[in-house]
Design brief:
With about 90 residues, the protein is mostly helical. Helix content is about 30%, strand content about 5%. The longest helix has 21 residues. The radius of gyration is 21 Å and the shape is elongated.
Length: about 90
């Protein structure tokens, strides 16, 4: 970036958010965004649909379609999806 090998960059994520290295802030050919690239109408709709599909899957089978890694650390543990709420 400094020597012009890369003409410009737009960055949406940094390794240690919200702390951005000063050397990136000082570059004139870098545009930094506050982690908002996924804030489009289409992306938000897709996320909402995925949440709905996961909830429906959870209550029908006890399994999420897109589980987080922490939830898959113990695959033998299953929660009964037929829980009754007070």
């Amino acid at each position: 970036m400094r020597d012009g090998t890369i003409a410009a960059a737009g960055l949406d994520v940094s390794a240690d958010e919200p702390n951005v290295p000063q050397r990136l802030l000082d570059l004139h050919n870098v545009t930094l965004l506050p982690h908002i690239a996924a804030a489009t109408v289409d992306t938000r709709a897709a996320v909402a649909n995925l949440v709905i599909e996961n909830v429906l899957s959870w209550f029908s089978s006890g399994l999420a379609l897109t589980p987080v890694p922490e939830a898959t650390a113990f695959p033998e543990v299953r929660i009964n999806p037929a829980l009754t709420l007070p």
